[in-house]
């Protein structure tokens, strides 16, 4: 029983990171109707920025705050400079640009900081959480940080004018424009927030997987799996999907001997394919109906 509970808590901890990535993916998907294949590399690059700031002597939380600000501005700049001119371009054009952005960020990070593995500090420590043997302090911190992000986003999108305008711009851009919402800038703000959320995910997972340019590849796949499982048009569903993927991955790797630790990553791919075949809109996604 202790092993089962330990694996569930560990799955929730890793699922918290997948939930952050899934949420970032869904925010951009709702804005432009495309999956951001470079989301993981954006998070990785932001984590390297935080590491560099700490190498220059900045305290952890100062580097954390500056990295969030830089990531937000970077996300807005990418949307304004790169994707705004492509808003009417074919789907394949967006895919090619996303792949190019992925390769550019990965290569630039390797050029600036090389491909060697670097340790990244944890703000929560490495000991057990409140003396418990079932979950570590950093794992509990990852879950807590994700819940704080979710609470902030709930309040932001439900009770603030900008949040309501962003929801309107994502749901019905034409009607939002008619009531004075600047849809283009709402999309840019969504990019900035998604970039900042991805940066938090990168800084939280870096102490576990260590810092290097390819650290977010598998994390992004798990995030995609969570987003597809929960529904690409349901932010709350994507978050629940991320947590579910983390728990399923951990339990399958522990209790199914054939899978073990080596085949845990294909579970995410299996979930993506399985959900798309059985329920294309995800468990919590909405079926869009258009009048013709």
Automatic annotation (TrEMBL):
Alphabetically ordered keywords of this record: Amino-acid transport, Cell membrane, Membrane, Transmembrane, Transmembrane helix, Transport
Locations listed in the record: Cell membrane
GO molecular function list: transmembrane transporter activity
Topological type in the membrane: Multi-pass membrane protein
Domain of life: Bacteria
GO terms of biological process kind: amino acid transport
InterPro entries assigned to the protein according to its UniProt record, in alphabetical order: ABC_transp_permease, BCAA_transport_permease
Annotated GO CC locations: plasma membrane
Main localization of the protein described in the UniProt heading: membrane
Transmembrane segments: 6-28, 60-83, 95-115, 135-157, 183-209, 215-232, 239-259, 265-284
Any Pfam family matching the protein: BPD_transp_2
Sequence similarity: Belongs to the binding-protein-dependent transport system permease family. LivHM subfamily.
Name of the protein in question: Branched-chain amino acid ABC transporter permease
């Amino acid at each position: 029983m202790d092993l089962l509970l330990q694996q569930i808590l560990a799955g929730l901890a890793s699922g918290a990171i997948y939930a952050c990535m899934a949420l970032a993916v869904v925010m951009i998907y709702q804005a432009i109707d495309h999956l951001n294949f470079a989301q993981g590399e954006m998070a990785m690059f932001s984590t390297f920025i935080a590491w560099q700031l700490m190498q220059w002597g900045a305290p952890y939380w100062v580097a954390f705050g500056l990295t969030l600000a830089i990531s937000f501005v970077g996300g807005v700049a990418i949307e304004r400079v790169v994707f705004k001119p492509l808003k009417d371009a074919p789907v394949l054009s967006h895919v090619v640009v996303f792949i190019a952005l992925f390769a550019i960020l990965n290569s630039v990070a390797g050029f600036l900081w090389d491909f060697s593995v670097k340790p990244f500090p944890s703000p929560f420590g490495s000991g057990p959480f409140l003396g418990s043997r079932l979950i570590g302090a950093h794992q509990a911190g990852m879950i807590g940080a994700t819940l704080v992000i979710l609470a902030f986003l709930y309040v932001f999108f439900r009770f603030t004018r900008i949040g309501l305008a962003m929801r309107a711009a994502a749901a019905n851009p034409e009607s939002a424009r008619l009531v004075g919402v600047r849809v283009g800038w709402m999309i840019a703000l969504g990019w900035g927030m998604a970039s900042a959320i991805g940066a938090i995910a990168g800084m939280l997972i870096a102490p576990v997987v260590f810092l290097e340019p390819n650290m977010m590849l598998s994390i992004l796949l798990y995030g995609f799996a969570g987003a597809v499982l929960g529904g690409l048009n349901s932010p709350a569903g994507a978050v629940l999907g991320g947590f579910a993927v983390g728990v399923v991955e951990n339990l399958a790797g522990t209790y199914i001997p054939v899978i073990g630790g080596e085949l845990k990553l294909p579970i995410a791919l299996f979930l993506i394919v399985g959900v798309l075949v059985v329920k294309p809109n995800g468990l919590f996604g909405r079926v869009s109906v258009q009048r013709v």
